[in-house]
Amino acid sequence: MQNKSLIYWVFQNIGQFLCPKNPFSLIFIGIKVEVYKENIMPDKMLKFVNVGMQMPTKRTSGARTKDFKEIYDAFIHEKAKEQSSRCSQCGVPFCQVHCPLHNNIPDWLKLTAEDRLQEAHEIVHSTNNMPEICGSICPQDRLCEGNCVIERAGHGTVTIGSVEKYITDTAWEKGWIKPIKVLKEIDQSVGIIGAGPAGLACAEELRKLGYKIAIYDRYDRPGGLLIYGIPNFKLEKFTVERRTNLLKESGIKFKQDFEVGKNISLDELRKKHDAILIATGVYKPREINLPGSDLKNIFPAMEFLTASNRKGLGDRVENFDNGILNAENKDIIIIGGGDTGMDCVRTAVRQGAKSVKCLYRRDKENMPGSAREVHNAEEEGVEFIWLSNPKKFIGTLQISSVLLERMKLGEADSSGRKKPESVPNSEFEMKADMAINALGFDPEDLPKLFNSPELSISKWGTIKINLKTMETNLSGVFAAGDIVRGASLVVWAIRDGRDATVSIRKYLEQKLNKSEKAA
Ligand code: FAD
Ligand code: SF4
Ligand code: SF4
Question: Measuring from each residue's beta carbon to the nearest atom of ligand 1, which residues come in under 6 Å?
Fold first, then answer.
């Protein structure tokens, strides 16, 4: 093997000295790949033909609906190694192309298969600020894993997310993840509005560069939707707290219970800092304007989920403790088939609901939520009423049932999705003690909220940015995450936060140069 490794090493190094446009270089790369595959890889990798795909053990639905703990057990070391070895080390890794962070997936899979976990962790962390969180909650079936070539070839995907989580959990356990040590602090500061994944990722990257960072958040805990939106059974809260504590230990200042627009205006904040990042997410629930919408016991999804998450964190939540926001022993109807809807139905099951039904206007194939999450919900006893649409909430003071109509799918609209249409005379009633609106979120009116009418927004209310620099129309004010994209994903928020860092740094360097020249 040593001779073979040497041959590979020689080819690798010769290849590096050749210009990529030189045809000889391509020949060398081709030979290199062949020598590599033939001589080194078979020992550790390309095992997908003999080794089947295996996710970490999923707890039985009976066991997992009794608590709010994560539904998958962690990989044991041998399993993570074995599953990593299934990767075929593609020349063009589609998994990486379809990961919003372009994680170096084949590299860390190979290192895991070779037992080189510390190196794997370094690579994982070089592109992602929260790999264990992404490994748990990215909709991998739509991103990296859904595009894995061996999945496409029918062998079952490499379990990329679980390995990413395994590597990072190991790194925490072994103490490889340490607070940032700033050797020379730069005398410039950045104010970040919002302690969700976009704000946290940007804060961490800027702190690594030496800037002074203050994060302002209107909640009492940092983490944004990671802490109060996403339920524990998908993401245990200690993982979020572990990350935010690390940032505190890195010298980043957190100002909680502090709402920009209420405690300070955007203009005042701009005077305190050299640059600003707006990463406030989107929180305004899309309204259901139906007869009976004003009846009691109809709640927006975030109110229901926040109460449940707060309980899990040990808080006193009056509306939960008095039973109002608690699904126990109730017939629950959830309206909406996205990921938020899935979180609500599964939370209601765990709170001990009598029945949980999810209404969706289209069919299962056209559902926006992750197929994996829908499957988990079905296993846990949730009933999906496909092709149904609420027409009216019925009740005297509080809701007692919902009037629904059947839908059918018509022609595809401009987005390519088939349009739901009402089926005439198809109305039917369904009992409900509580209804939850999970139809999605829109941005709040930020120019008004921030007392900054000049801040430019799109027709959807998201903040307009220069796509290259991520700067808003206000000089030195940048924006990232859901408030720019609309409701999206954690991994995209992290990507935005990291991209914003590059532009903010450039802006701050130019600002410093200007002031040095002027002095
Ligand atoms: P947020 O996480 O929303 O953070 C924004 C922060 O800004 C909050 O802490 C808020 O308090 C603060 N803030 C807002 N306004 C102000 C103000 N005026 N002053 C001070 N602070 C302010 N994504 C996935 O990838 N996987 C999932 O499984 C998943 N599940 C989800 C489940 C639910 C129920 C929801 C609602 C979303 C889910 N998402 C999921 C989406 C994901 O959580 C978001 O895309 C992501 O959190 C956006 O990050 P962000 O930093 O832009 O905003
Ligand atoms: Fe896959 Fe998300 Fe990890 Fe990227 S960050 S590799 S999409 S799990
Ligand atoms: Fe490995 Fe699949 Fe990525 Fe190819 S696409 S490098 S097989 S994980």
Answer: 137-138, 193-199, 216-219, 224-225, 229-230, 234, 259-261, 279-281, 305, 339-340, 343, 449, 481-482, 488-491, 493
Please tell me whether residues 42 and 157 are part of one structural domain. Answer: yes
Same domain, 307 and 434: yes
In a domain, 311, yes or no: yes
Beta strands 212-216; 331-335: pairing state: unpaired
Q: Does residue 361 share a domain with residue 221?
A: no
Check residue 416 and give its pLDDT. 77
- 31/161 same-domain check: yes
Q: Which ligand is nearest to the CA of 447?
A: 1
**Direct distance between the N- and C-terminal alpha carbons of the chain, in angstroms, rounded to an integer:** 63
How many domains would you assign to the chain? 3
In a domain, 66, yes or no: no
- Residue with the smallest CA separation from ligand 1 atom 43 is 225
Domain boundary among 441, 472, 498: 441
CATH code: domain of residue 263: 3.50.50.60
pLDDT at residue 41, as a whole number: 54
375 by DSSP, 3-state: which? Answer: helix
Q: Residues with beta carbon inside 6 Å of ligand 2? A: 99, 101, 103, 105, 128, 134-135, 138, 140, 143-144, 160-161, 164, 491
- For the segment 229-239, what is each residue's pLDDT rounded down to a tens digit? 999 999 999 99
Q: What angle do CA 182, 187, 191 make, to 5 degrees?
A: 90
183 belongs to a structural domain: no
**Using a 6 Å CB cutoff, which residues line ligand 3?**
87-90, 93-95, 105-106, 148-150, 158, 160
d(CA 270, CA 475): 10
**382 lies in which domain range?**
285-441
Q: Furthest-apart CA pair in the chain: how many Å?
A: 83
CA-based nearest residue to 305, from 257, 339, 354: 339
Q: Chain-wide mean pLDDT for the chain?
A: 91
Looking at the structure, tell me whether residues 434 and 470 fall in a common domain.
no
User: For residue 17, is pLDDT > 70?
Assistant: no
> In this predicted model, what pLDDT tens digit does every residue of 395-407 receive, in sequence order?
999 999 999 999 9
Q: CA 143: distance to chain centroid?
A: 11
CATH number for 112: 1.10.1060.10
Residue 519 has what pLDDT?
Answer: 78
Q: Mind listing the pLDDT tens digit for each residue in 205-222?
A: 999 999 999 999 999 999
What tens digit of pLDDT does each residue of 469-513 get? 999 999 999 999 999 999 999 999 999 999 999 999 999 999 999
The tokens for 268 are 């005042």
| Nearest ligand, CA 45 | 3
Question: CA 341 to CA 440: how far, in whole Å?
Answer: 9
